[in-house]
């Protein structure tokens, strides 16, 4: 599967659903991801069984030169996945985080740091109730500091509701935090 994703010249869209792949899948994806022509990738309920597979998946995503649209859905991402996303520069323009659960406070902070370091991000959609308090607090702080400039003119959605600008997006995050506490 990883070989096809990385070498098929006309493959532009990939959807992986409910998969628990062998560790070799993630190793090969990381090794050859830079040859991929995939533009749209949906990872739905994908399981990364080890720290190494989490790191390899994040490295593969960051190395895919044509990847502009990424959807992550589910709770199968380990702390190392978010740390690696933070350390690398993901080049996507559109990112959907649906029911993504950060397993630790550090994961939440790493995810926000990764969002802020994505230079091409213009469309962000957050959906779900599994984001930790640290995620909201860090995202809010980064936006207020001006550390999230690349998305200030983009499109925002929180739990499927479009927001006009970053201020209304942050207000929705804060309202959600207040409501869920």
TrEMBL record:
Domain of life: Eukaryota
InterPro entries: LRR_dom_sf
Gene3D superfamilies from the UniProt entry: Ribonuclease Inhibitor
Name listed for the protein in its UniProt record: Uncharacterized protein
């Amino acid at each position: 599967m990883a070989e096809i994703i990385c070498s098929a010249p006309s493959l532009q869209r990939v959807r992986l659903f409910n998969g628990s792949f062998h560790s070799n899948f993630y190793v090969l994806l990381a090794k050859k991801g830079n040859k991929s022509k995939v533009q749209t990738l949906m990872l739905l309920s994908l399981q990364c069984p080890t720290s190494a597979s989490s790191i390899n998946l994040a490295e593969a995503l960051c190395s895919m030169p044509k990847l502009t649209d990424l959807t992550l859905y589910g709770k199968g991402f380990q702390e190392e996945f978010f740390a690696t996303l933070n350390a690398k520069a993901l080049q996507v323009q559109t990112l959907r985080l649906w029911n993504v659960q950060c397993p630790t406070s550090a994961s939440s902070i790493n995810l926000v740091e990764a969002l802020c370091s994505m230079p091409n991000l213009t469309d962000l959609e957050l959906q779900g109730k599994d984001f930790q308090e640290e995620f909201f607090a860090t995202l809010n702080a980064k936006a207020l500091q001006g550390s999230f400039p690349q998305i200030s003119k983009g499109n925002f959605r929180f739990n499927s509701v479009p927001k006009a600008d970053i201020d209304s997006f942050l207000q929705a995050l804060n309202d959600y935090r207040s409501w869920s506490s």
